[in-house]
Every structure is written in structure tokens, then in C-alpha cells.
Amino acid sequence: MSFFKKNPIRFEGQKEIETQIKNQTDNVISRRFKILMGFIGVVGVILLVRLFLTQITQQEYYTTKLDQYNTSLFTKDTFRGNIYDRNYKRLSYNKNINCATYYAVQDITKEEMEMIANFLVKNVNVDTKSVTERDKKDYLILKNEKLVDSLLTKEEKSTYTSDELYQLQLSRITSAMLKENLSEDDIKFYMLYAKIQNCSSGSVVLLEGLTIKEASLIGENSDILRGVKVTNDWSRETTYGANFKSVLGKVTTKKAGLPASTKDILLAKDYNNDSRVGISGLEMQYEDILAGTPATYSLSYDSDGNPVVNTVSSGTKGDNIRLTIDWDLQSSITEQMEKTMKGFTGSLYKYNHNIYLVLIDPNTGAIYAMCGVQKDSKGDVYELAGGAVQNAFAPGSAFKGGTIYAGMKHNVINQYTEFDDTSRGFKIAGTLPKYSWDPGGLGRLNAAEALSQSSNIYMFYVATLLGGGTYEYDQPLSIKDSAFDQMRLDVGELGLGVKTGIDLPSEALGYRGKVTQRQPGNFLDFAIGQYDTYTPIQLAQYISTLANGGKRIQPHLFMESFTEDENGTKISLLQHQVKVLDDVSSYKMAFETIQTGFRMGCVSGLAKSVNGDYEAAGKTGTAQVLHEGTYDIWANRAFVGYAPYDDPEIAVACIAEALPNGAGSTCQTLSKYAFEKYFEKYG
């Protein structure tokens, strides 16, 4: 094998054949190489074209990305919805205001910031009411660093951190130093300068409430006021000043920002730290309806570092709210109550600080008026309707409808049950006798008559039976402790001692007598409304339940939300639905008996002064109050009622705190006034 390799055998003509084969092979290789190179060339061109196209398209993409990285988005509150009364009288609205807003300028110099601040101080009204003493201390540090530095010792400077030294400086700057070293113009200047200095990104409102002239002046000098723009904003206003504001509620300012108590929740809902939100009353209760969708803006910069603001989305205004309140009734009744309280002067009225009246539809819970007036220690009288859900009082005999209801519910009495109300009174061994308002006695009475004549003695007998006791004159009386709890459950079904569910963010429950005081005499007091306390809105729900025959309906201020189209046509969005919280209308005879007694009270009984063409039914109340630290006794005066008695359309609950006998008819007079005003308008 090796031989043949070393000495291959060659035949004639082989060389020519090898040459041909070589030439053919070379041609094939050449052709294939050329084809390959051609293919590579085509691919290369394609790759080059793709690379070129990619560079062109990607340049736009990356340019856009770069712009995005150099652009920040921020939002701005849009107008809140307005609040109206049932007849579309505007109660809360947004007031347009012009502002000077600074948008952060890139690489702004100290000299530019000073120039902007000086220009505004000299040419625009700068309000410093919001400046605190702490702010002034910071301004002094900015103005005279050398002076403030002299307040620190060398040892302190070498020992403490910069933050600790700053706190020491603040603590050592006195009011006298501020007064001596900071003029009013200094305060204005550094207030603006500090805002600009601290705004390294985004924007900050420098001034609010610019006049048209001031706004024009800023616009005309935009070339030297880099970053300062005139912007439109709003403030929340009420049409009738402070009247009803305790119910309408408050909205935060941009400076105050989100309330700490709900900040985390609101941030999770995409609010900003400086968003304005409702923090009390209806503004808080219906925040989700009233608040609009914020507008979104982009903030970018030109080649000189100047801010450029563009609108991304304009947002939407919040929806309007229409209340059940009739402002004509609300304002008229409140005015009458203020006039009444202003007439209560002198020592006899020293404990009278509150009068409340609620006018409500007993069938739907719609509140037509919720009025309140208070008197402070100086004797000044002011409106405070919100007190109707916050303050609680013993209502006296106005409670007695609840006692009759409990007695008939538990079958300890019926409509025919009679008891004697005599001059002997009702006496438990070891205690003084208890009487009705007439110590001579009211005679033998059934349940309805006892209500119309306001018999305490009758209620004491009912309470004794409810408590499982047996009454004998001047003998010990035993009452089950559980009777207190049962009575609370019973009257709670009517609306007393339970939260009514009114659509306001906070509602008081009232005061419950102490467990340690569960003596028989206390239960007797409970039965005549002189033990637990109730809010005026609870009394309104209670009388509504009695009037409609046993349905405890949620009282409400919200009627509907709505918007308006381009032509001003109102479009209803969300409407209130009547909500029955409890239904004890199966105790039909109990309610018929109570209604009969209440009607008799307005025809010939103690409430007859309230009656009119509207044919009312109702119950007066007098609860004696011993003021702590004194031996003086005054009485809360109350009235609860409705009209017409046979087809209740409107109900009223009124209570006046701590009045002498001479003003005992206060709530009857005010309730009559409310009835008359309502029926004058609604027939």
C-alpha cells in the first residue's frame, strides 16, 4: 500500500485529464465563491438598511424616552361639585382666585431668586397672615446667619450635629430678636424667597388672590420672573357665611394638605399630599361625589432651563349635591331661634346655652331643617346646626311615648289599663314622694289620657310592672337590673339611645345612666325621660317612628347628586333611597294608643298651644337638671310632634337647655312657628 502511495502509476493522457478536472474544480469553486460573496453582499445590504432604519426609528423612540425622563407630571385639583338646597339654592361653591405659582427653574441663581422675591414684594400685595413665629425664625437664619451663629458656643459647634445645632438656634431666637431684626418687608421677602429656594422640582404657590392688575403685571414681566406664572385656582366658599357651615363642613387648603387621620387612605386613592379634601360635615361625607378628577400637566424644560407647562388632561369637575334642606325654612327658623335666645338674659338663663329644632318627613327621613343656636360664656349667640347630632339632653316627658310602647309591647298594660294619679303621689320607702306636674293629682287615667295630661304617676306604675316589681305606697320597691337594658332596647327600636344613621361623619350616642345607679328610683326617672340623654336628631327619629306607626327610618340630608349639560339642564345621577332601620309596626295597638294620646295633648292637653289648622299631635317635655356644683335646678324644655295627625306629613323635635319656668313654652312656640312656616309653603 505504501508503495503505491510513493510511486503512483500514471497512464497516458492522465495529466491532461487532471488539468481539466482542476480547471473544472476551480471554476466550480469560483462560481460558488462568487455566489456566496453575492449572497453575503445582499445580506450585508439588508443588514445595513435595517441598521439604518433602526437608527432612524430608534432615534425617535429614545428621543421620546429622553423627553419623558426630563418631563415630570403633576396634578391639580379641579372644581368640587356645588351643594344646593332642595330648591337648588346654592349653599357651597368654588370661588375663582388668581395665583402666582413658581415652577422650578433649572440652575436658578441666588440673585435671580432674590430679584423675583423683591419684585413681588414691591409690586404685589403679599399676605403674611399665615406666617408663624417658627417661620420667622427660619427667615432670620436666612437673613442674618452671622447673628444666629453667635447664639452657639464653640463647644456646641464642635459637639453637635448640624440638625442639633439648628434646633438649638431655633430655641434661642426670641420674639424680641425677631421683632428687632425682621421688618414686615423682610418677612414678605423671605416668605417668598424660602418658597422658591425650597422648590427644586415641581411647583409651589407663592401668592393667592391676585387682583387683575397684579396678575397682568406679573404676566408682563415674565422675562425677568423666570418660572413665575399666573395660574387659576379656587377656594371653597359658602353662600350664607357661617350659617349651616357646621353641617356643610370644611375643605382643607392646599397648604394644609391631606388630614393626618386619613392621609394613607387618600394617598392610596391617588390624592396628592396637597390635595384639598372634605374634612368635616357633608364635604367629608360625600367627598367621593363632590371631588372631581384632577387635571394632569407635564413640566419640562427648554434649553435654557426654563419650565414649560403643558396640559395632559383637563380633568373633570365634581358632581353637585342637592340636599333635602329647604333653605327658606332653615334660615327663617334659625333666625327665630336666635331672636328667642337673645331675649334670654340675666341670671335666670345662665345655664341656657343650646336650643335645637329638627323638621323632618316622618315617612322618608328627609330633613327639611336642622337648626341650632348656641350662647357662649360672654352671652354671644351664634348658629350651630351641627350640634343637633353632637349634643345630648334629657328630654323629660317627651320620652313617655317610649314608656307606653314598652309597656304595651311586653303586655304589662293595654289601651284600657288605668291608674290613679292622686295627691298622695308615688312613694318608695325611704324616699320623698314623686308627683306629676300637678301635685293635686290628675285623676284616674288610661294610657292615652296619661300621655295627653303628661302623668308621671302613670309612667311610674308602668315602669314598676316592666321591672317586675310590685308597688305599695311607702314600701320598698324592687326593680330588676335587666329592666334598664330592656327599656333601652325597646326605646332604641323607636330611635332613642341609638345612632340614627344620619349621613354625617360623626354622630353622638348620648349619655347612659351609670350601672352603679340602677336603683328603683332611677328606673322611675328613666320612664319619664330624666335618666338617659338623647340628641335632637334622635328625638326627630323617635317622633317620626311614632308618627308613621313603627318604622324607624334613617334621617338624611342627601337628596340626589346631579350634573348639568351645556344648556344648564340638570341631569340626576344618584338618588337617595329610603332606608328602614327597624320595623316594629306589628305593635299596631301601641302606636295607635300613643298617637291618640299625642293628638289629645294638642287638642286639650299640655301641648294645645302648638295646634293649628294643620291639626298637630305631640308631646311636651320638662326635665329637671341639677347643675354640678350648685343647688340650682333648671329644666330642659322639649316638644316632639307631627302634623296632620291622621296623615303625618312633617314632624318636629325641639329641645331647649336649662330654662326657668318663665320660658317653659319655648319649644312649643318654636315648633308652632316651624309648622306654620312649613304649611305656608307646602300646603
Automatic annotation (TrEMBL):
The keyword Endoplasmic reticulum does not apply. Gene3D superfamilies: DD-peptidase/beta-lactamase superfamily, Penicillin-binding protein 2a (Domain 2), Penicillin-binding protein, N-terminal non-catalytic domain, head sub-domain. It is a single-pass membrane protein. GO terms for biological process: cell wall organization; peptidoglycan biosynthetic process; regulation of cell shape. Keywords: Cell membrane, Cell shape, Cell wall biogenesis/degradation, Membrane, Peptidoglycan synthesis, Transmembrane, Transmembrane helix. GO terms for cellular component: plasma membrane. The chain crosses the membrane at residues 35-53. Residues 356-657 form the Penicillin-binding protein transpeptidase domain. InterPro entries: Beta-lactam/transpept (IPR050515), Beta-lactam/transpept-like (IPR012338), PBP_dimer (IPR005311), PBP_dimer_sf (IPR036138), PCN-bd_Tpept (IPR001460). The keyword Ribosomal protein does not apply. Its main location: membrane. Residues 80-310 form the Penicillin-binding protein dimerisation domain. It is found in: Cell membrane; Membrane. GO terms for molecular function: penicillin binding; peptidoglycan L,D-transpeptidase activity. Pfam families: PBP_dimer, Transpeptidase. Belongs to the transpeptidase family. PANTHER family: PEPTIDOGLYCAN D,D-TRANSPEPTIDASE, PEPTIDOGLYCAN D,D-TRANSPEPTIDASE MRDA. This is Penicillin-binding protein. It comes from Massilimicrobiota timonensis. The lineage of its organism: Bacteria, Bacillati, Bacillota, Erysipelotrichia, Erysipelotrichales.
